[in-house]
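User: Hello! I'm new to structural biology and keep hearing that structure can be predicted from sequence alone. Could you demonstrate with Gamma-aminobutyric acid receptor alpha-like? Please show me the input and the output so I can see what each looks like.

Assistant: Of course. The first part below is the input, the amino acid sequence of Gamma-aminobutyric acid receptor alpha-like. The second part is the output, the predicted structure written as tokens.
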Amino acid sequence: MGPISELDMEYSMDCYFRQYWRDQRLSFRGPIKSLSLSIKMLERIWRPDTFFYNGKNSYVHTITVPNKLLRISQDGDILYSMRLTIKAKCPMKLQTFPMDRQSCPLIMGSYAYSSRDILYQWSDEGSVTFVPGMTLSQFDLIAFPYRNLTVKRREGDFSVLQVSFNLQRHTGYFLIQVYVPCILIVVLSWVSFWIHREATSDRVGLGITTVLTLSTISLDSRTDLPKVKYATALDWFLLMNFFYCIATLLEFAAVHYFTKVGSGEIPVDEEDWEDYECEEIIGGDTAEDLERIVLTHASSTRRRSSLICPILNDPTSPYTSRRPSLGFSVSYFMGSTMEKTTQTEFKIPRWKQFLYCLKGDENFRKQRQKQAAYCGSESSSNGMQHVNSVSLIDRTARILFPVSFAVLNFCYWLIYFMYHDDFEWENAPLNTLN
């Protein structure tokens, strides 16, 4: 038996199809109890016109000769056997795919003779048997119940036989190829919570990579499935993983918008800037005055900073001999300001800060930029770590994302492994005959 195709919703099987009936006109007497006749005799005797109601493409094996057998006993009992490959329709319900169970029917009966002429019955309890050790690649054969029934057609009532092959799918392939890689990709996306908020390209690149990888796995897993109108269990799992990867990107957007302020340099408004000429700076009394002026304007634009830096690096300047360590201390300060980042803490309530951020209040943002830039020296003296601190949103996401993902996975597997519909006789294929 096999293969079983979900894409075309069909299955195929090789079988020995045996039919028994009695025709007293063919009874005889003699020393021989049964006669094995040539298949050419089939053209000269009556035989049932059996066909498969849900068959699609069935054929008789003809190598090396037509695989048929005809045997007649003394009482007129006839055995007609043939080897067939049957391809039949199998309506599938894929809501729980790949933890699903399917029931593939095979329905047979007479094409032209109604129940007044022919009655089909299974011969005994062993009418349907399988070769010992038969296995399927993706399914386990649970049971194969069969029954006799009568269906109504336009021409009247017809006697038919039905056997259902109840199958349960193996989930090992999908666990290895889809579920475990998707879980690992989602866990990999959480690494961005431990990456510093200033590494914008690193965190965004990691998030985009995980989303694209999930897209590739999702498209590959759908190649062998039909385009059904409902979502399968695998679709829900992939959607859940997509949600977490996209939520990781949105979380960084929230961190970047609500907690990152400026670049860490000292902000100076244009209206607050006073143009200092180089002569005024050189005319300072002491090296301490020069250092104070440089520290006050260290975060200015590159054009304006260039008015100060050449003087500090000029070996002919009188201030270099007066204080040799001044150039090093100022350079170190200016280098450190480039690395300052931005989570700050205020006495303003957090809900007000949130509203200011949503509103886009410029005054509030300028205030945060100034405090983020100036808090370096103050926080070091007070023991408070404002600059280069970890965002509260990141700290919350480190706990919230893994815990919620584990809870959803537990519910997912509990629902789809514990809940299974019982196999019932399906009459849908019979209704297509009307």
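User: So the tokens describe the shape?

Assistant: Right, they're a compact way of writing down the 3D structure. Reading them back into a model, for example: The chain has a mean pLDDT of 79.
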